[in-house]
Every structure is written in structure tokens, then in C-alpha cells.
Amino acid sequence: MQSLRLILSNPRYFAPAWVFTSLNILFGTWAIYIPTIKDKLAIDKSELGIAIFFLSLGVFTIFPVAAKIINKIGVGKATWYGVLLICVTGVLPLLAPNYYSLMAALFIFGATHGFTDIAMNTLVTEIEKEDKKNFMSAAHGFFSLGGVLAGLGIFLIAVIGNPVLHMVLAIAIVLVVNLLFYKNYTHITATPVAKEPFSFNLFKPLLIIGLVSFMVMGGEGAIIDWSGLYLKEVSIAPETLWGAGFLAFSITMTTGRFFGDSISQKFGSIKIVAIGSVVAIFGYLAVLSTQTYVAIFGFALIGLGFSVIIPELFRIGGNFKGIESSQGVAFIAGTGYLGFLTAPPILGFLADVSSLSLSFIVLLGCSVLVFLSTFILRKQKSN
Fold it and tell me: With CB atoms counted within 10 Å of each terminal CB, which end of the chain scores lower, N or C?
């Protein structure tokens, strides 16, 4: 909670944290209107899936070049430009008059989303380096808070009655608050890094962190997509509890991130990843018990475990020796998004050929691998 108090009491830390919130407010507001867009354009589920793929394609397209742009213009200015870009492009999918323009709009929105994501995580990494204070985990808590605020926007649907107007209102809130605080970070540039010639020994720990990011964010994506179906078909939960697993996961994910920084300062990033993976392992075991309330508690444990892992991965990625912080963050973000997007369909295939329980056994195995990877990282750090 110390990092939360730091953010709420000092504009230097609140300003970048609000960027995290802003990104998820706009993304979440677009997401709640997906069914409306589907009906408006008269497209089927497969066509909608292809359109959303263009959102992901935009994110991945920007990753290889984002670090160079950020380093050239400065991470503070890049973050502010990213905020302006998502405010401009966030409304485009809701304005799309046809299917093809929707794909183009989502590609552009995805690219600006990905750029802002890398810039804001790099910004927090640089501020942490300058001030010797940890608030990455709490900043990710503010990202989760943005999703909650966007979700509360469903109560405005009936009042406003216009998706574009709703998004414009969300953009106005995001922009006004950012205008009040953005000058607290626009002057910040990345600390110069003494680059080293490429070697596998230099790249290997970053590759391991990337694989951890892939598995953890893959698990997050799977729970978002499959927890409700698991409770319905495996736990035979009543309809009123189908969404309880994801809700429990989201609450502990958000709450845990506000405590993660103080724990990280005490134990260090690698130990935090190890502790988080152990908590997630117990969570998966509870889920696999198939008992409804035990499974819901298991989803809560997984959210708690994951809550502290992802921020630490960005912190580690932004502090690799011989690698610029923006490049490390971009690599971690890229592998994480790859897992988030590919894991749900892969696990869906496993569920089709075998069972949904097997899919969650695979996720359990991934958390075990994350735990084992921390021993390799600790050994490499000591060397």
C-alpha cells in the first residue's frame, strides 16, 4: 500500500499511473460495445473474430519499432503522444461504417494501444531507476482499475444511448486528467545504456523472462475466456455463479497489485515471481478440485499470484544489463501478448479433443514451469 499512497500523494507518480488507467478505460469502453458493433454491421462471429485479429495485428506490428521511436523522442514525450493517439483512435472502431473500415480502425487502435503500453511501462521503469522507488505493480493496479471503471460504464449505455457519444465522454475524462498531469513526465528520457555485443548468455535470461511472460499472460487470457465455461460444464455451477470465477480473479488481481511493490522491495523481483507462481499453483489445484466454491476460491488465488508477476516481469525486462529499457519492455510485452492471444484457442482445441479439465492441467503445468524458471534466473543473477 506504500506505493499506492505514493501515487495518490505525488503528481510525479500519479501522472504515469493515470496513463495506465487511461489505456484500459478506452479499451474497455470499446469492448463493451462489441455486440453492438456486430449487430450494426451485420457480421457473424467468425467475421468479428477476424476483425479483432486486426486489433492484435496492430499491436504486434508496432512492437518491433516502438523502442526505436521511444528512444528517439524520449520516453516521457512518447508516453504523452501515446495518450493523444489512443484518444484519437479509440473512437474509430465505433465510427466504422462497414466491415473493412472496422478492420482498418482496429488495426490503427491496436498499434497505438501497443505503442502506449510499451512507452508507459518504460516510463515507470525509468522513474523507478531515478527515484529508487518501486511503483510498477501499483501502476498495473491502476490499469486494472481502468478496466473496472470501463465496466461500470455499462450503466451509462441506457442513459447515453449512443456508443460514439459514450466513447467521446470516456476520451474527454481521460484527456482532461492527463492534461492536468502530463508535464510531470514529458521531460523524462531513458538512462543511457552501455550496449554489449550480442551473445546468447546476454539474451538467455531475457528469453526466459519472455517465456514466463508468455505462460502467465496466456493463463490470464485463458481464465478470461474459459473460467465461466469451466464453472458451468465441469463444476456444474448454477448460472448465477458462472461469472464468479472471473470476478474473483479480477478482484484479487487488482488488489494484489497495490501491495506488490512493498513486497518486491523486501524480497526482490525473482522471489516475487516464485511466490506468485506458487500461489497460482495452489489456485489451479483448487480449480481442478471441480467443487464450485473451492474452484472460485482457486480463481481468486490465481489472480492474486498473477497480480505480482506481470509487473515484476516488466521491471526485470526494463533493467537488463546491456539492453535499453524500452527494448526489454517491448520484448516482455510482445511475448506476453502472444501468450494472451494464442493460449485461449490452443486450450480450446485441447478441450475439444479431450476435456476442459486437461486445459487447466496444462495451465497448472505452466505455473510449475514458471516456478522452476526462477531457480535458473536466480543462478544466472548470482553468476
Answer: C
Q: Any idea of the CA torsion for 58, 64, 65, 70, to the nearest 10 degrees? A: 100
Distance, in Å, from the CA atom of 238 to the CA atom of 366, rounded to the nearest integer, reads: 29
- The grid coordinates of residue 257 equal 497489485
Whole-angstrom CA distances from 207 to 185, 320, 331 are 30, 11, 9
Give the type of residue at 40.
K
Domain 200-382 has CATH 1.10.630.10: no
Nearest to 127 by CA among 11, 22, 260: 11
Question: What are the residues whose beta carbons fall under 8 Å from the beta carbon of 160, sequence distance 6 or more?
Answer: 166, 169
Length of the chain: 383
Q: How far apart are CA 375 and CA 298, in angstroms?
A: 25
CA separation for the pair 29, 156 (Å, rounded) = 11
The residue ranges of every structural domain in the chain are: 2-184, 200-382
Structure confidence at residue 333 as a pLDDT band (50, 70, 90)? confident
Alpha-carbon distance of 122 to 128, in angstroms, equals 10
3 state DSSP class of 371: helix
Contact 216, 336 (CB under 8 A): yes
For the entire predicted model, the pTM comes to: 0.81
The one-letter amino acid code at 257 reads R
Q: For 10-40, what is each residue's pLDDT tens digit? A: 999 999 999 999 998 998 888 888 878 888 9
* Cell numbers representing residue 373 in the block: 524458471
Cβ atoms 331, 298 nearer than 8 A: no
SS3 of residue 90 by DSSP? coil
d(CA 8, CA 13): 8
Q: What is the pLDDT of residue 198?
A: 45
Q: What is the DSSP letter of 190?
A: P
Cell numbers at residue 2, please? 506504500
